[in-house]
Amino acid sequence: MEADDDTLYVFGGKEDDVSYINSLEMYNTQTEQWSILKGELTIESAASLVESKTIFITGGIKDGKCYNRIFAFDTQKKTFENHAQSLPVESAYHFCGRLVLPQLL
Hints:
Elements: E1 2-4, E2 7-11, E3 23-28, E4 33-38, E5 47-51, E6 54-58, E7 61-62, E8 65-66, E9 69-74, E10 79-86
Antiparallel strand pairs: 1-2, 2-3, 3-4, 5-6, 6-9, 7-8, 9-10
């Protein structure tokens, strides 16, 4: 789950032990309305980070296999891309965070 401007984004997961959720659900905090966008992510236990109108979704599990892929979701165009880079190792149940070091700015 991530937030960007007035929208909360919820993606991935499973409905039961078998069915993966293949949608991106968006909640607009101004209108208090939900909308659903058909997604390309059928994973669970991924991590995410939003930066410059893009949500980066990393790793995750599908059918017991752990992945190292990085997906990018453009919050303005509402499109997914399979990012050119990948994680160095397969990851699930992990965390993504943004660290700003003032001395490096």
